[in-house]
Specification:
single chain, 233 residues, mainly beta, 12-stranded antiparallel beta barrel, disordered N terminus
Length: 233
Amino acid sequence: MARYMSLLLATLVLTILPGRAQAGDVFTGFQIDNKSQYFGYLGVRTPILLMSGGTTIFAQAMTAGLGYSFKSNGQLLDANVQFVVPSLGISQTLGKWTFMALAGPQLRRIEEDRLNTSSKIDHQVGVFGQIEALYWHEKGSLHAIGSYADLDNFFWGRLRGKLLAYKPDRGCCPLYAGWDIAGMGNGEFRAVQTGPILEVPISKVFFLVKGGYQNSTSFHSGGYGGVEVYFPF
């Protein structure tokens, strides 16, 4: 994993330097459920080529980690995954809509518990792709996102809507309220999540909290909660 992190740091430097005079984004977040399964991520996205007509070529680097539980011979075992995804993408702005697509290699380390023996560690390299559609207005936004990883044929998708719920006459800070609906899975696993979100922008930093209900083929009904932070540079 150390060489993966070195690759990520090199990718971050290469993506940030060309865009120092342009606009980039940093995004991070963490989510955990009532079974102590978690997911955390950190990413940077920055333009490398601005073209006429609202088209942009951008680079993105993201690292993430997740922990989950699975059953083997009736016993519950733990696993954790760390991965790095350097990628290139294209975005197109049409009025208040922005459409994006990106793809790149996924470098993955998986550690799984095994019955009556030491953990199994595996390193994998695959392909990752993602598409997004964003509608933004000062009074609200709509964001649809979907991704696919070929290593385990895993799909993930989310639809998120937010509306301006409170705006002070002066000072800090407006409040946005909304809802999340997410689904994910492959041939062996399925899960859905849905719940409310609250977002507060403070200067150029956007803080979001979320939580709600989830149902999966592993644990059936449960709950989850998380935080997200986003800021442009």
